[in-house]
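Hi R.,

As promised on Friday, here is the backbone we talked about, encoded as structure tokens. Could you run it through your design pipeline when you get a chance and send me back a sequence?
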């Protein structure tokens, strides 16, 4: 089917249509189906005075100025924000791993609660209600990006402006597909916004085809975008695109290509902030350590407040959160008690690692008969022992900063940080023959900040030993940034690590079912949302679901 372009002879209807388009771009309720909805809704907005040709779709003339494209690009950023600002992000990235568990509440066995438990316990199935949000948000972001890319040539733009719009848009699309392929495997690829049912309901591409598509987008973005200027604005840059490329190449074990991409990032002015806690301070948003982060702001409608990625999900179920957050918020109903740091993670921090207290704190208090918590103090985690009559409940604290409304925080979400660039570069060097000694430079830059310069350097150049050390370093440096499950899978450690972890979990918690933590190859991917399977008969479900 020939892809239709906007007519140049339509009356100006943008005043009424563009807000509707932007609203539609920001919808979160639909997955692939929203791709078709966007095209159909645009088609319905053409001038009602002109007779319709029943065999064609005319999208009208919506993009008339550079500002129209910038508004649409803002909408694409908003959709990408939704990928990270929903519970599926930490459920699938952290609670699926050995980093985090949950506070079990025997009196709360509602569907939402049980479905969250199931993700952590490897008991989720195709009907799980908690994991489709990632799929839906990613495809909504792809839909928003495709709308821009399909019509970027409808008007003449200055070359610099056009490159910037295309570069940022293709980066956002690449990032969205990266989220999909890592968690679901091969997925349908939409290089354009579909304009018919036939274009919408297509089969899955292979994993390699999805990665090839991501690489093409990220490569083009890196060519078109400029290096970062400090202070940064939070928009994607050449450094963002090259970091994404390096991440993909490491995943694909193309370590020489990863090294090439990541070394370019080293030359762009990024740097580690002096202290690990500095990275997450509200005053340091989009700092020199930031490669790309999701923007949140409680003072503005856009960017919106950080809600589903906030610390309120991570603290205990409490009638009042005031002792921990400074704001009185009830977290008992479907909010608190999740992403609880495990002893396994806490014990993996080495003595003297400053990242432990910066990442995890202890809420001290008591649980009642309903498994709800009352906090009386917040204590450092390092060396903590609960006093008689008290319970110390650890929680992820790196995103806890001053705010005024419960479950609405100002914390941005770090997608890529310079510390990760250094660790990815160390990994890519270690996996190439004869380059392990070079890896130490970049690995120890990260460790020097955590322990003090020269206090605890890694000196081994044995590739096998260094491989384990780098994976450990990623765990403690990037804890609760939704990297752990992906790291376990891509390094081939998920089955061994999680089955062993499951044995210890079942010894500790009697409520865990016998079939939990039965981690097989099939469990390395999540199920395609069942609603999508029902809508699209060409989609095949992942094995085991």
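Update: got your reply. Pasting your designed sequence below so it's all in one thread:
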């Amino acid at each position: 089917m020939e892809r239709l372009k906007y007519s140049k002879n339509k009356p100006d209807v943008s005043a009424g249509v563009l807000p509707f388009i932007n609203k539609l771009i920001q919808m979160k309720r639909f997955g692939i189906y929203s791709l078709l909805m966007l095209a159909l809704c645009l088609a319905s907005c053409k001038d009602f005075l002109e007779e319709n040709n029943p065999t064609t779709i005319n999208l009208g003339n919506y993009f008339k100025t550079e500002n129209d494209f910038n508004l649409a690009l803002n909408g694409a950023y908003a959709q990408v924000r939704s990928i990270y600002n929903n519970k599926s992000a930490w459920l699938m990235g952290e609670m699926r791993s050995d980093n985090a568990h949950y506070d079990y509440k025997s009196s709360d066995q509602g569907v939402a609660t049980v479905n969250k438990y199931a993700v952590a316990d490897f008991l989720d199935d195709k009907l799980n209600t908690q994991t489709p949000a990632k799929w839906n948000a990613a495809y909504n972001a792809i839909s928003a990006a495709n709308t821009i890319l399909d019509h970027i040539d409808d008007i003449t733009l200055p070359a610099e402006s056009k490159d910037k719009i295309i570069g940022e848009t293709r980066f956002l699309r690449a990032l969205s597909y990266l989220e999909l392929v890592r968690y679901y495997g091969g997925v349908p690829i939409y290089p354009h916004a579909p304009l018919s049912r036939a274009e919408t309901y297509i089969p899955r591409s292979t994993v390699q085809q999805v990665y090839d598509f991501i690489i093409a987008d990220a490569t083009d973005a890196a060519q078109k975008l400029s290096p970062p200027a400090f202070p940064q604005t939070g928009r994607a840059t050449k450094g963002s695109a090259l970091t994404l490329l390096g991440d993909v190449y490491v995943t694909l074990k193309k370590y020489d290509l990863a090294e090439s991409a990541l070394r370019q990032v080293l030359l762009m002015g990024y740097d580690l902030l002096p202290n690990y806690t500095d990275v997450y301070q509200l005053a340091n948003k989009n700092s020199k350590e930031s490669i790309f982060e999701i923007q949140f702001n409680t003072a503005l409608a856009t960017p919106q407040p950080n809600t589903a990625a906030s610390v309120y999900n991570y603290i205990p179920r409490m009638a009042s959160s005031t002792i921990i957050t400074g704001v009185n918020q009830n977290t008992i109903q479907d909010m608190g008690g999740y992403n609880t740091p495990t002893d396994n993670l806490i014990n993996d921090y080495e003595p003297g690692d400053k990242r432990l207290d910066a990442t995890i704190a202890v809420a001290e208090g008591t649980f009642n008969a309903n498994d709800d918590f009352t906090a009386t103090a917040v204590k450092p985690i390092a060396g903590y022992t609960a006093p008689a009559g008290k319970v110390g409940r650890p929680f992820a604290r790196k995103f806890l900063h001053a705010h005024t409304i419960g479950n609405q925080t100002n914390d941005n979400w770090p997608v890529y940080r310079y510390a990760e660039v250094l660790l990815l570069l160390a990994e890519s060097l270690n996996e190439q023959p004869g380059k392990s000694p070079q890896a130490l430079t970049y690995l120890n830059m990260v460790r020097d900040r955590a322990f003090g310069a020269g206090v605890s350097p890694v000196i081994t150049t044995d590739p096998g030993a260094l491989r384990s050390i780098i994976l450990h370093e990623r765990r403690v440096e990037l804890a609760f940034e939704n990297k752990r499950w992906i790291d376990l899978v891509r390094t081939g450690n998920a089955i061994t690590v999680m089955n062993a972890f499951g044995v210890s979990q079942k010894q500790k918690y009697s409520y865990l079912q016998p079939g939990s933590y039965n981690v097989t190859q099939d469990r390395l991917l999540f199920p395609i949302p069942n609603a999508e399977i029902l809508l699209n008969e060409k989609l095949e479900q992942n094995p085991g679901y």
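One thing I noticed while checking it: Residues 311-406 form one domain.

Thanks again,
M.
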